[in-house]
Amino acid sequence: MLETKLANKEALQKFGDLIAAQGGNARVVEDVSLLPPQARFTATVEAPQTGFIHRADPLLLGEIAMELGAGRATKETVIDLAVGLEVEKKNWGGQHPTGRPPFGDYPCQ
Question: Which site in 8, 64, 97, 108 is 20 to 30 Å from 42, CA atoms measured?
Fold first, then answer.
């Protein structure tokens, strides 16, 4: 049964239905060129030592993202849709081990 649903693309159609139900473009299952751009480069900032992260400055993170191309300094600035920041820290105030990234980023292409 699984092989049949994969072969006749019924499973792919169902995946497209799930994407559409969440407000996405279901045509991406047939045309991957419709997917958002992906960054060619990524960088990870690792914690230099074990410690605690109690807060992050959202304004500073926004300014960093804007400098990378994820936002606008002026209305003429072009936004690079492949740029973003990913906050990997889920347990604010909890211990964070050495070498683990609290943040990951997706720099511009």
Answer: 97
| Closest listed residue to residue 96, CA positions, set 59, 55, 65, 42 | 55
Q: Where on the phi/psi map is residue 13: left (φ > 0), alpha (ψ -120 to 50), or beta?
A: alpha
Q: Between the CA atoms of 65, 66, 67 and 72, what dihedral angle is there, to the nearest 10 degrees? A: 160
Outline where the chain has alpha helix (H). 2-7, 10-21, 58-68
Rg, Å, the chain Cα set: 19
Write the pLDDT tens digit of every residue in 18-49: 999 999 899 999 998 888 888 888 888 777 88
- Say how far apart CA 89 and CA 25 lie, in whole Å: 30
Residues 15 and 50 in one domain: no
| CATH classification of the domain holding 88 | 3.90.1170.30
- Residue 66 tokens, joined: 């804007």
Per DSSP, the residues of 10-32 read HHHHHHHHHHHHTT--GGGGT-G
